[in-house]
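[step 3/7] inverse_fold.run input=structure_tokens len=64
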């Protein structure tokens, strides 16, 4: 893999990590505000996290 590919892969991993951190933090804030909606919030968080991970893996494969 060439140097630009490695830089792109690094940016993808950093972006995915920041996105997952933002999702997790926002979900915890929402659960703290409305504990009765925790199951719905957690389900949405897991689905969005899975989609983000899939997008990151796809970008890594296409960038290779």
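[step 3/7] decode complete -> sequence:
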């Amino acid at each position: 893999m060439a140097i630009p590919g490695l830089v792109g892969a690094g940016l993808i991993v950093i972006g995915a990590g920041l996105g997952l951190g933002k999702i997790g933090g926002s979900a915890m804030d929402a659960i703290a505000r409305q504990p009765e909606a925790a199951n719905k919030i957690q389900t949405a968080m897991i689905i969005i996290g899975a989609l983000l991970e899939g997008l990151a893996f796809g970008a890594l494969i296409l960038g290779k």
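[step 4/7] annotate
The mean pLDDT is 90.
Residues 30-64 form one domain.
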